[in-house]
């Protein structure tokens, strides 16, 4: 609570039964872009907490002035990998694997302040209040993501809230065309059940930074369409699949895996501010692509009306041909998105991810460097072998939780 320009600012928990329409109104106002430029609008489909509600613990706070909602902030908490260590009891001659080090981390999402109430310190009040909720629920770190060019957001968190720049992953967006993508005949794509997928992820990717300890909850969530494994044709098939344990005991030389999350069921996006010429050009490409699908033309979906998308997460693999395997999986994901009526397939990976080369994307739609900022909330740690995670160097890979995208 505070006094700004003679008006009392009250920060409290959001009431979904009474304030959904007010919050959605603020969302719309905040997302209006500069005049004459393209803007991305988000429709939360009537659920203001849709982008955090699938996390183990979540909260939404609002800043209220009188009977008006001046701003809001969302946050969630989960346990993730922040490093790795050697087992305490191990046979040095046989030791080949490391173990994950977990920490409880909080994530800030969707900080909004109405244009009418900016420069009043409301954003700072919301962040401070959310961090208190994080601490009260045992979080050891807090992090957030923003565009590196969003100077107001970067300055708020780094200059006023004590966050430091941490990671710069890449957001890669590929449009869904009117034609299906052809997948190499040399590659087989196998769908894994949630239990099998969890075994594979835990055995091979549990030490990846930000890997969620509750990976099983994500894989079993209704929004996960499936987990898909790419292998050389002839090595395995759905009929000869032996299970993840036997697969990992003797894997093919190259393979790759991804899981797909259906963001379309959570929210939709819409591009506004495009000129009539751009709209006409996009429409023309779709018409030609539908009429002549065998040409495999890169048509532009109708991003100027609300569209949904699928998010690819848990990307990983090994071997000299792994990038080609990833490309096949992306093609499979594209075709799934086409069947579900989506406009795009999106993923986010470390900027130095070796498999990034296999991910088809349009540069004009993608973000080469998303910015993650992090803050240490306390001095007590569940495991001190990592030290201060905020000062650790980036690894080759990073796990992006689809529940927070």
UniProtKB/TrEMBL annotation:
Family matches, as PROSITE patterns: GNAT
Q: Which GO terms describe its molecular function?
A: acyltransferase activity, transferring groups other than amino-acyl groups
| InterPro entries linked | Acyl_CoA_acyltransferase, GNAT_dom, Plant_NAT
Q: Does the keyword Transferase apply?
A: yes
Give all residue intervals belonging to the N-acetyltransferase domain: 9-184
PANTHER family associated with the record: ACYL-COA N-ACYLTRANSFERASES (NAT) SUPERFAMILY PROTEIN, N-ACETYLTRANSFERASE HLS1-RELATED
Q: Which organism is it from?
A: Acacia crassicarpa
Question: Which is one Pfam family of this protein?
Answer: Acetyltransf_1
Q: Which UniProt keywords apply?
A: Acyltransferase, Transferase
Record protein name field: N-acetyltransferase domain-containing protein
Q: What CDD domains does the entry give?
A: NAT_SF
């Amino acid at each position: 609570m505070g006094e700004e320009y003679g008006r009392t600012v009250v920060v409290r928990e959001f009431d979904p039964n009474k304030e959904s329409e007010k919050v959605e109104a603020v969302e719309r106002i905040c997302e209006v872009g500069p005049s004459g430029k393209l803007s991305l609008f988000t429709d939360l489909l009537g659920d203001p907490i849709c982008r955090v509600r699938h996390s183990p613990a979540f909260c939404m706070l609002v800043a209220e002035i009188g009977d008006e909602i001046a701003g809001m902030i969302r946050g969630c908490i989960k346990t993730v990998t922040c490093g790795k260590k050697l087992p305490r009891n191990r046979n040095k001659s046989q030791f080949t694997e490391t173990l994950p080090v977990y920490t409880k981390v909080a994530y800030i999402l969707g900080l909004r302040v109405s244009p009418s109430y900016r420069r009043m310190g409301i954003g700072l009040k919301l962040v401070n209040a959310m961090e208190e909720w994080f601490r009260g629920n045992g979080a050891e770190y807090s992090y957030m993501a923003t565009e590196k060019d969003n100077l107001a957001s970067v300055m708020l968190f780094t200059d006023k809230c004590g966050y430091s720049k941490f990671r710069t992953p890449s957001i890669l967006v590929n449009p869904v065309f009117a034609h299906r993508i052809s997948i190499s005949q040399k590659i087989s794509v196998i769908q894994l059940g949630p239990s099998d997928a969890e075994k594979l992820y835990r055995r091979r990717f549990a030490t990846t930074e930000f890997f969620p300890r509750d990976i099983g909850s994500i894989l079993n969530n209704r929004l996960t369409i499936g987990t898909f494994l790419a292998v050389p044709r002839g090595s395995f098939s759905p009929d000869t699949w032996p299970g993840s344990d036997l697969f990992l005991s003797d894997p093919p030389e190259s393979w790759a895996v991804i899981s797909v999350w259906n963001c379309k069921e959570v929210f939709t996006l819409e591009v506004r501010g495009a000129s009539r010429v751009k709209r006409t050009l996009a429409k023309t490409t779709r018409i030609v692509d539908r009429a002549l699908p065998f040409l495999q033309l890169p048509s532009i979906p109708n991003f100027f009306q609300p569209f949904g998308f699928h998010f690819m997460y848990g990307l990983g693999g090994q071997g000299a041909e792994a990038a080609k395997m990833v490309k096949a999986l992306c093609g499979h994901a594209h075709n799934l998105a086409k069947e579900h009526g989506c406009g795009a397939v999106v993923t986010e990976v470390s900027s130095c991810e070796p498999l990034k080369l296999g991910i088809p994307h349009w540069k004009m739609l993608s973000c080469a460097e998303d910015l993650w900022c992090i803050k240490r909330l306390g001095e007590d740690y569940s495991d001190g072998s990592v030290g201060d995670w905020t000062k650790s160097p980036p690894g080759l890979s990073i796990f992006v939780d689809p529940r927070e995208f």
